[in-house]
Amino acid sequence: MSKVRPRSLKTPPPQVGHPTIVPPKMFLPGVGTIGGTGKTPTLKRATVFAQLPDIYRDAFRETPDEAGPGDPPEGFLGAFNSLVEWLMYYWIWWLLKCEGNVRKPPFVGGRGANGSFTYQINFFGGRRQPGGTVPDFAVLRPTRALLLRLQGEWQHVFAHISKIERDLFLKGRLTGEGYTVIDIYEQHVLGDPYSPRGTLPRVIQDAMEGVAWQGPIAAGNPYRTRLPFQ
Predict the structure, then answer these.
(1) Strands 115-119 and 137-140
(2) Which of 15, 86, 95, 212 has the fewest Cβ atoms within 10 angstroms?
């Protein structure tokens, strides 16, 4: 009877199943030639999105009631508010020539010679109901009723397709209620090429007249406007 010689630990186990598939060679911009060896390619550099420089610093002015919005007043920022919403709140108040002090609470909107607006009003049950929504600004002008929705990069522009589809669905429901729904994108407010930094962004002016700018994804020029968790 022949003895079975134990296999050395250094001896590789027999191949079972399908053989290794070697991918064909191909060239990718920024990566180089990959494939042909069965090895995992190594990226030469990470993907970097274009980022607007110093946008938050330049969008606010130090003299709020004279030349610009300045920093948000105490009590404005919360779990459902943002710095860019304060910019829009200030300039909508200014355009409508609202009465009172824009920097005094409660921050629910205002009424003036050119119309009135409400900040964060519930539709279809608001955040507590499936299918509900809270548009950022409901604006009533003498000739039109507007709903202005601020579209940030993390929750809207670079969001999952399901979130983008939900935005479109809600836009249709709100339009059915008789409103003109205008989406204002964060990168247009902070990086408006037509307006000097710290002045009224033209995108807000146009929105108040019922004119919407093309979205950055559709236009092919999306920018990163903030760092993660900023």
Answers:
(1) antiparallel
(2) 15
In degrees and rounded to multiples of 5, residue 66 shows phi and psi of: -110, -45
Rounded-to-integer distance, Cα 211 and Cα 219, Å: 16
Per-position DSSP letters for 198-215, written without gaps between them = TS--HHHHHHHTT--PPP
Could you tell me if 149 and 207 are in contact, meaning their C-beta atoms sit under 8 angstroms apart?
no
3-state secondary structure (DSSP) of residue 170: helix
Going from N- to C-terminal start, the domains of the chain cover 55-219
HSE on the CB side for 193, CA within 13 Å?
A: 2
Measured between alpha carbons, how far is 93 from 114 in angstroms, rounded to an integer?
10
Q: Whose structure tokens read 């247009």? A: 188
Helix (H, G, I), strand (E, B) or coil at 173: helix
Per-residue pLDDT 10s for the chain (230 aa) are 555 555 544 555 544 444 444 445 555 554 455 455 545 545 454 444 444 444 445 555 544 445 578 889 999 999 889 888 999 999 999 999 999 999 999 999 999 999 999 999 999 888 888 888 999 999 999 889 999 999 877 666 666 777 778 888 889 999 999 999 999 988 888 877 777 766 788 899 999 999 999 887 777 777 666 544 44
Helix/strand/coil for 133: strand
pTM greater than 0.70: no
φ and ψ at residue 202, rounded to 5 degrees: -65, -30
CA-to-CA separations, 149 to 2, 37, 59, 143, 156, in angstroms, rounded:
83, 51, 19, 19, 11
